[in-house]
Amino acid sequence: PDQVRGSAPVLPNGTAVTGTTESRAALGEPGLLALLADDAHLAPFLDIPGKDNGFDIEGIAVHGPPGQERVFLGLRGPVLRGWAVVLRISPRDSDGELVLRELEHGGRYAKQFLDLDGLGVRDLCPQGDDLLVLAGPSMALDGPVRIYRWPGAAHLDTPDMVRRDELVLEAELM
Prior knowledge:
single chain; about 170 residues; five-stranded mixed β-sheet
């Protein structure tokens, strides 16, 4: 495919590629969604619409030098009992195909749970070794919008829970 539109690869004539090729091109093989289908926390939310607290990636940040990048995927939903979720993956090119490299703890992705006062992740932005987290309602509701600093997030090596006192509230936007 010459280009990617959304998560579906598109051929030069504008035809979207479907089937397993689409999954592999967008998410690696095995695809992230295939891996999450067995995840105790996230699997139940994969078939729920994103704006109804279903699985919904809204934030993405990349940290690290070329070939050693860590990709952080911030989930707008689901928010699980008040905890937001950030996934960390390390995609690499393997003979022209995207693969998810095994992480330090042995899995192909890591989950971090963040106490964002019941809000979901709306965007992520690396700043040095920290991540700035734009947090807002996970569903189509009015609510607070806040920017948190997650100190040292770029160097986490294992899945973890990040408690509210480990985050810095940088701004509240109303």
